[in-house]
Amino acid sequence: MAAPCSLARCVVSPAGKPSAAVIFLHGSGDTGPGIKSWVREILKKDLAFGHIRVIFPTAPARPYTPMMGGISNVWFDRYKISMDSPEHLDSITPMCHVLADLIKEEVASGVAKNRILLGGFSMGGAMAMHLAYRYHRDVAGVFALSSFLNDNSVVYKELEGTRQGLPELFQCHGQADELVFHQWGEKTCTRLKGLGVTSSFHSFPNLLHELSLQELEQLRAWILKKLPEVTAKPGEET
């Protein structure tokens, strides 16, 4: 099924003009409003900032092989949920180009590209890693929550020989995750570090394939570290 040219999305915007943006991609079967609500339920407030626009797009509905071909909101198809499976590049690569339009929209609105973070939960984190490390290495950083890349990922191949100017990676993973195993996330982090990516990996005991308050608080702190508020110079508009 061909991906649409424009993605539905919901947005948490600051009161004033944003100087930075976060694009937060949901996991398989979810929606932008769904993960926004999930985050709000855990934090007891929106993932909101005084100077950052947070965008939660929704993946297009498409047949999803792990669901026996059933229709689901997924960023790409998978042959199976396993590190040793080949990547479904026929769906991953086109979606990178669709998501690039969100980056272009932010840049057109006045947000510098090096003030944009890409990330997501589960499949959304994998999609963000493809998007950033294959096509948009000049973004501010990448976050991947309960996510992994396949052993033979094209991301690794395309990073070979590229050691400078790569976005920093922030990873979180539950040690009790029975869908995307903790060691898959750890291995992804190790492989990317070996290819020159500055990365941090945060483990959470007893956490299943889900988000947690501690995890989201650490993510929020990291976002503010990567996208601090910019103080206008004298004579410039605020």
UniProtKB/TrEMBL annotation:
Compartments (UniProt record): Cytoplasm, Cytosol
GO CC terms, sorted: cytosol
Alphabetical list of SUPFAM superfamilies matching this protein: alpha/beta-Hydrolases
UniProt-listed Enzyme Commission number(s): 3.1.2.22
Phospholipase/carboxylesterase/thioesterase domain boundaries: 10-223
Gene Ontology molecular function: any one: carboxylic ester hydrolase activity
This protein's record includes keyword Hydrolase: yes
Family note: Belongs to the AB hydrolase superfamily. AB hydrolase 2 family.
Name of the protein this chain belongs to: Lysophospholipase-like protein 1
Protein source organism: Eleutherodactylus coqui
Classification of source organism: Eukaryota, Metazoa, Chordata, Craniata, Vertebrata
